[in-house]
Automatic annotation (TrEMBL):
Protein name: methylmalonate-semialdehyde dehydrogenase (CoA acylating)
UniProt KW keywords: NAD, Oxidoreductase
Swiss-Prot/TrEMBL GO biological process terms: L-valine catabolic process; thymine catabolic process
Species the sequence originates in: Agrocybe pediades
Aldehyde dehydrogenase domain: residues covered: 61-522
Keyword Transferase tagged: no
UniProt GO cellular component terms: mitochondrion
Length: 545
């Protein structure tokens, strides 16, 4: 890593400011005051047009890059910040800082590392509103949902505090006076590459797990909304994490390829879409790294005739359209079994009743999509359903946003009756679109799910234990909900998406997370009690009897 004096001089050289008041006019008064607070109070991020910084060796440093990526508020297109394409030399500085820090961090006691996560959880709670505000500004989701984003990450931090129990090793006397002991030791420098849709939760899937197990980490947040990650990095520092244990770099493919290729990086955690995930998995594993990659999804909910109708409809509507459908565990397909199709008008009515609005607005249920490109993609997938003979029973393409948000990337809740051959079914839409399929029987519905290439999650709504049991046994996805629409396990368990939704062998957080970030080391030792006396060597092959 560069000496601190060089970092400070880089900072002064890079004083160029992007701030201009013209581009801020579109923000509401509430959004503007939150943006100004973020710019004034946080070192690594800016929400009023300034630069997002790298975090290298414990310093927030403005990049020397000549390539910058603009981040706009998805509900107004206001420029919030510019994110650097971190340069190769800055990236190498970050890896060097992590390599140096590993030498001491990996030797700190488990209680020291536990104390860090305990302090971090406290600071995250204290600063939840600021982090949630950054998420609303950059990502667009509603304030309540942004708090949920942080909370789900916070739960990983809280569970990581159990490291003094979860890292306990095994030991047994394998022969008289001979013990074998296994220790879980850290890997070294690890890397984490995050998607845009959970700007706080996904970085928090990896930061606490990597740190409590004694690793150091290079985090690359999504270049579309890195603000929450920068604030979390600052809180890690305030929580006592030594310089270099966590470093944050930015950018797109060049940074990702740097992570895949750098020989000092031992493991990569990736969460995002299929294309990037396959590339990272292949390139990372070819370079001898351990890789876990959570990918895209198409999650089905089966609606059985004996379901509690009210619970089922509310659950499906919430899980399909919450976060504007930009969740990897969103329900994007409802399979109506038998005559539950008669419930569709009610489902449409409840979807229609959702309020689509800017994320800070009172009563907003869902906000905009992340970018104009995402909006175009979603609306063209809806159009493809029309062309393929699908029936659009609720069309969100013509949603008219309130005047203040007329430039936002809004699409209203959309419901399409279709079949499994259609593009809108075959593709992960990642928008507020629910495809409804008809099945005659439970067997047919399970077959549809099992034939889908993805395997993140599936839910069933029924009041029959037998039906639920059959579903649970026969359905081939990793995370099953019974009367639960988004069955993401709490982090004492591990994420368990399967089929096309996951590449790798070891899941995120929980026991899986500990295994991912550690390798086993066994020691077999012999301290013969009888060696304390006697004077004759044994020449026989040791057989451990
Ligand atoms: P994305 O794949 O576009 O981006 C994810 C990360 O990969 C970003 O940091 C980005 O910079 C990088 N990246 C993008 N394209 C790349 C490329 N061609 N080569 C190398 N790196 C690249 O994903 P996104 O749009 O930010 O997030 C949405 C996707 O993430 C959806 O498919 C969603 O299902 C998935 N996701 C999955 C989970 C899960 O746990 N299974 C959770 C959240 C999101």
């Amino acid at each position: 890593m560069p000496p601190l004096s060089r970092i400070s001089s880089l900072r002064t050289l890079q004083k160029k400011s992007f701030h201009s008041s013209a581009h801020l006019k579109a923000l509401s008064a509430l959004a503007l005051s939150r943006a100004e607070n973020i710019s004034a109070n946080w070192k690594g991020t800016n929400a009023t047009g300034g630069a997002t910084k790298n975090f290298i060796g414990g310093e927030f440093v403005e990049s020397l890059s000549s390539e910058w990526i603009d981040v706009h508020d998805p509900s107004t297109q206001t420029l919030l910040t510019r994110v650097p394409q971190t340069t190769e030399s800055e990236f190498n500085d970050a890896v060097d800082a992590a390599t140096q820090a590993f030498k001491t961090w990996s030797k700190t006691s488990v209680v020291t590392r536990q104390r860090f996560v305990l302090e971090l959880q406290h600071l995250l709670r204290q600063n939840a509103d600021a982090i949630a505000s950054s998420i609303v500004l950059e990502q667009g989701k509603t304030l309540a949902d942004a708090h949920g984003d942080l909370l789900r990450g916070l739960q990983v931090v809280e569970t990581a505090a159990g490291i003094t129990s979860t890292l306990l090793g095994d030991k047994i006397e394998v022969s008289k006076d001979m013990d074998t002991e296994v220790r879980k030791v850290p890997l070294g420098v690890c890397a984490s590459i995050a998607p845009f849709n959970f700007p706080a939760m996904i970085p928090l899937w990896t930061i606490p797990m990597a740190a409590v197990t004694g690793n150091t980490l290079i985090l690359k947040p999504s270049e579309r909304d890195p603000g929450a990650a920068m604030m979390i990095a600052e809180l890690c520092q305030r929580a006592g994490l030594p310089p270099g244990v966590l470093n944050v770099v930015h950018g797109g493919v060049p940074t990702v390829n740097g992570i895949c290729d750098h020989p000092a990086i031992k493991a990569i955690s990736f969460v995002g879409g299929d294309r990037a995930g396959k590339h990272i998995y292949e390139r990372g594993t070819q370079n001898g790294k351990r890789v876990q990659a959570n990918l895209g999804a198409k999650n089905h909910a089966i609606l059985m005739p004996d379901a509690n109708k009210n619970l089922a409809i509310n659950s499906i509507v919430g899980a399909a359209f919450g976060a504007a459908g930009q969740r990897c565990m969103a329900i994007s397909v409802a399979v109506v079994v038998g005559d539950t199709s008669v419930w569709l008008p009610e489902l449409v009515e409840r979807a229609k009743a959702l309020h689509v609005n800017g994320g800070f607005e009172q009563g907003a249920d869902l906000g905009p999509l992340i970018s104009p490109g995402a909006k175009d993609r979603v609306t063209s997938l809806i159009a493809s359903a029309e062309q393929e003979g699908g029936e659009i029973i609720l069309d969100g393409r013509n949603f008219k946003a309130p005047e203040a948000y007329r430039y936002g990337n809004f699409v209203g809740p959309t419901i399409i009756r279709g079949d499994t051959s259609m593009k809108c079914y075959q593709t992960e839409i990642f928008g507020p679109v629910l495809v409804v399929l008809q099945a005659d029987t439970l067997d047919d519905a399970i077959e549809i799910i099992n034939n889908n290439r993805y395997g993140n999650g599936a839910a069933i709504f029924t009041q029959s234990g037998a039906t639920a049991r059959k579903f649970e046994t026969e359905v081939n996805v990793g995370q099953i909900g019974i009367n639960v629409p988004i069955p993401v396990p709490l982090p004492m368990f591990s994420w368990s998406g399967n089929k096309g939704s996951f590449l790798g062998d070891i899941g995120f957080y929980g026991k899986g997370g500990i295994n991912f970030y550690t390798q086993n080391k066994t020691t077999t030792s012999l301290w013969k009690a009888e060696d304390a006396v006697g004077n004759r060597a044994s020449v026989n092959m040791p057989t451990h009897h």
